[in-house]
Amino acid sequence: MGDVENKPTLEEVTIHVSITNSTQLVNHAVALSVDHEKTKTLQSHSSILTTIHAGYFRITISLAAQALLWKILRLSTDDSKADIQRMFRTLPSMAFLLLWCLAILTLVSLSFLYVLKCFFHFDMVRAELLHHIGANYLYAPWISWLLLLQSAPVIVPKTILYQVLWWVFTVPILVLDLKIYGQWFTTEKRFLSMVANPTSQISVIGNLAGALAAAEMGWKESAIFMFSLGMAHYFVLFVTLYQRLAGGSRFPAMMRPAFFLFSAAPSLASLAWTSISGAFDTVSKMLFFLSLFLFTSLACRPALFKKSMRRFTVVWWAYSFPLTLVALASSEYAKKEKGGIASVLMLVLSILSILVFLGLMTLTAINNNNLLRKTSDFY
Q1: Cα angle vertex 128, ends 321, 38, to 5°?
Q2: pLDDT tens-digit profile of 298-324?
Q3: Is-above-0.90 flag for pTM?
Q4: Between the CA of residue 341 and those of 325, 336, 344, what are the distances in Å?
Q5: For the purposes of burial, counting CB atoms within 10 Å of the CB of 102, is it exposed (0-12), middle (13-18) or buried (19 or more)?
Q6: Under 8 Å CB-to-CB from 241, ≥6 apart: which residues?
Q7: Which residues span the membrane (predicted)?
C-alpha cells in the first residue's frame, strides 16, 4: 500500500517533464543568443577589415598636409611689414599640436587595421595591388608618414631618429616604384597608356614627398634622386592623361575629386625644389604657377563633380590634400615676393584649405557609419 502511495501521479510526472523541457529550451535559447552575439561581433570585425582599403588613407594624407600647413604658417616669416603673413603667427600652438596628434592617431589606427587585413584577408590586399586605382593608394600611408615626420613638433631634421625614419618610410615607396613604374613600360597589359588615371599621380607625390624630407635633412643627392624619379614619370603621366587614352575610360564618376591631384604634384614639386635649391627660384615659380592654373581650371568646373557629390564618401577627402599643397606652395611664394598680391593669394588659399578641411572633418564625424559601409565600388 505504501509503495502505491509514494508513486508520483501522472500529473506530477507531466509537470516535471514540462519544467525540465522548459529549462532546457531556455538554456538552449540563451546559448544560441550568446553564440549569435559572438558571431555578430566577429562578423562586424571582419566587415571592418574587408571594407577598409588603401583609399581610406586619403584622410591621413589630408590630416598630415594640414598639420604641415599650420606649422609653416605659424613659422612663416619674421618680417614685421608682412601683416597678412604675421597674422598666421597668432595661430595657437595647442591647436597645431592637437591636429598633429589627431593625424598620428588616425594614421596609426588605419595602419593597424590594414596590417590586420594583410594577415586575415591577403587576397583582398593582393587584389588592390593589381587594381589600376588601388595600387596607387598603397603609396598613401608612406606619404602620410613622411609629411607627419616633417611637421613633427619634437623631431628635428639632421638627427639620427629623423634619418632612420626617413629610410623606413622611403624604402616602401622605392619598392612600389620598381613594381609599378616597371610595369608601365615592360608589361603589355599594364602599359601606362592602359592603366593611367588621375590617381596614378600619387606615385609621383610619394617620390616628391621623399625628396622634400631628404632636402630638409641636407641630403641633397638623395633629394635630387627622388625628385628626378618623380618628375620624369610625372611629365610622361601628365601627357598621357592629357590625351585621354585607354585608361581614362575606366575611371568611375564617383572618383572625380581625384582630378585635383593634377595640382598636387606640381605644388609638392615646387616645395621640394625650393628645399633642394635653397630658394624659391624660377623653377619653383613655374611649378607653382602650373599647379595654380590646374587647380583654378578644375575649381571653375563644378558640374564635373556633380555625380560624385550625391553621397558623402571617403573620396571627398581628395579635395583637401591638393588644396593644402597649393596653399603650402603659395606660402613659399609669398615669402619670396613681398608684394600684397602674393600675400593675399596665400591668405585666400590657406583659409580655403582650412575651411574645406574643417568641413570634411564635420561631414566625416556625422557620416562615420556610412564610411564603413560596404559598397559595390572598389573605391
Answers
A1: 100
A2: 999 888 888 888 888 888 999 999 999
A3: no
A4: 19, 12, 5
A5: middle
A6: 196, 197, 198, 200, 247, 248, 262
A7: 93-116, 137-156, 162-181, 202-219, 225-246, 258-280, 286-304, 316-334, 340-366
